């Protein structure tokens, strides 16, 4: 860790915290920070939307996410589809090319992976944020560094506030990030994802679709489907299945503006990208009603060298690591960020240390973690380039087989999927020679 820099906020006064964004990052941070004594920290969360409505369909919750949800007291209410076997198929022929699951041996049931409706995750988190903390319809427009006085925040509705600490949980297109790192930019990756929930009853007649979670891989994308409900929580007739269809093009070939995030897509638009797929998949894609599909254009950007700025701003979740959903665990990363931030603030306030020191601790723990992810993804990209160079005539079938053989699944990345954020914090305390059991 570097020098914490000047004292930006006297530890004797309550820290006024402004969280921007009410996604997993902002909600998780609001829960964890609100649990600190109010004489120490005062929290407000500002969300641009008029109501907190989770867009998207389902979300995967695995061990790393369950652990942090437990620490936030938000795990018990969340149920969903308990994932067992996962099939990988050639999307064009339906041939099974790989199978994973039923999941790691010895992992307690409560920590095993589930696919859940996003709304369930969100309402569980919202239920744990104290009343009066969330302010809706507050879109951040601008920020000004007031030196020792904090940060002035300006909202689109013309109102202003001053905070000692600004927590940027405002997602991949973060306004907070734009202010502290104006040279950083994100760009369209070439991937468009369409997502929807459909009643299971609508697809029950399609052979083999209701027996497992499956990936149907095609030459330029894939179609994924999975249940999202636990039979104990949802009546049979009400159960839903999630469909996520993805098409990838070379971003250089895309002309015009490709910017969509949770906007409706027509059935025709979605289906047009999967006309070569197995008839079962074409049938599946035809089932959502017009207006139900939502489209998301994936954006990504380079790694930030630091996740903090101005000695009083910190970035969490997608704002801090614009990886565009890589690893399918972004909600866990966002929640882990918020929990670690609360620990770092608690640690420094117990020791009458400045806010800048807390931000330094946060960066010391989380930056190397995100660096490791970026390096891993760079390595994977390089492998694809090398494989193409080695065999430029490889067909879709042979390259899919090679991909499946190289696919280690989640077991290959325990530092992500088996991360226990409480252990990470304990590791930090050990580094600092803090006696066991102390904070
Ligand atoms: C297709 C896809 C599939 C995914 N699947 C999974 C999965 O299975 N499991 C998983 O863990 N993760 C998954 N992710 C990733 C996960 O959705 C994100 O990583 C996670 O939502 C990030 O949370 P966040 O709070 O940082 O950002 P967001 O969820 O984007 O929330 C940001 C919030 O900030 C608000 N906001 C934005 N700008 C402003 C402003 N100026 N002022 C005030 N408020 C503002 C927004 O309205 C929003 O509520 C997936 C992502 C994608 C795209």
From TrEMBL:
One of its GO terms (molecular function) is oxidoreductase activity. Signal peptide: none annotated. GO terms for biological process: secondary metabolite biosynthetic process. It comes from the Eukaryota. SUPFAM superfamilies: FAD-linked reductases, C-terminal domain, FAD/NAD(P)-binding domain. Gene3D superfamilies: FAD/NAD(P)-binding domain (3.50.50.60). This is FAD-binding domain-containing protein.
């Amino acid at each position: 860790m570097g020098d914490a820099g000047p004292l930006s906020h006297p530890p004797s006064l309550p820290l006024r915290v402004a969280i921007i964004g009410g996604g997993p990052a902002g909600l998780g941070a609001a829960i964890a920070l609100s649990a600190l004594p109010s004489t120490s920290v005062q929290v407000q969360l500002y969300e641009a939307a008029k109501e907190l409505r989770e867009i998207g369909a389902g979300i995967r919750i695995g061990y790393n996410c369950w652990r942090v949800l437990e620490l936030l007291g938000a795990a018990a209410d969340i149920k969903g589809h308990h994932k067992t076997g996962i099939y990988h198929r050639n999307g064009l022929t339906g041939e099974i090319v790989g199978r994973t699951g039923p999941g790691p041996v010895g992992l307690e049931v409560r920590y095993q992976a589930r696919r859940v409706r996003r709304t369930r995750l969100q309402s569980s988190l919202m239920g744990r944020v104290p009343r009066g903390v969330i302010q809706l319809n507050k879109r951040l427009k601008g920020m000004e560094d007031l030196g020792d006085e904090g940060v002035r925040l300006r909202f689109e509705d013309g109102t202003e506030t001053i905070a000692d600490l600004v927590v940027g949980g405002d997602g991949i297109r973060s306004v907070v990030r734009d202010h502290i790192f104006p040279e950083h930019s994100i760009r369209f990756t070439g991937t468009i994802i369409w997502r929807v929930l459909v009643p299971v009853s609508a697809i029950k007649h399609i052979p083999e679709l209701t027996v497992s979670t499956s990936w149907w891989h095609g030459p330029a994308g894939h179609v994924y489907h999975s249940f999202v409900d636990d039979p104990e929580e949802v009546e049979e007739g009400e159960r839903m299945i999630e469909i996520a269809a993805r098409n990838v093009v070379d971003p250089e070939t895309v002309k015009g503006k490709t910017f969509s995030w949770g906007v409706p897509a027509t059935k025709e638009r979605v289906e047009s990208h999967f006309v070569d797929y197995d008839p079962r998949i074409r049938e599946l894609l035809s089932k959502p009603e017009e207006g139900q599909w939502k489209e998301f254009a994936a954006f990504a950007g380079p790694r930030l060298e630091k996740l903090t700025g101005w000695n009083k701003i910190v970035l969490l979740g997608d704002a801090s690591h614009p990886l565009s959903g890589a690893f399918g665990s972004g909600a866990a990363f966002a929640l882990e960020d918020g929990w670690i931030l609360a620990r770092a603030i608690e640690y420094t306030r117990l020791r009458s240390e400045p806010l800048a020191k807390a931000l330094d601790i946060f960066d010391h723990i989380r930056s190397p973690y995100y660096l490791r992810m970026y390096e891993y993804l760079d390595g994977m990209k390089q492998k694809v380039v090398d494989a193409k160079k080695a065999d430029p005539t490889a067909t879709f079938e042979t390259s899919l087989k090679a991909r499946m053989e190289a696919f280690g699944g989640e077991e290959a990345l325990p530092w992500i999927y088996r991360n226990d954020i409480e252990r990470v914090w304990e590791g930090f305390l050990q580094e600092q020679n803090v006696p066991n059991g102390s904070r």
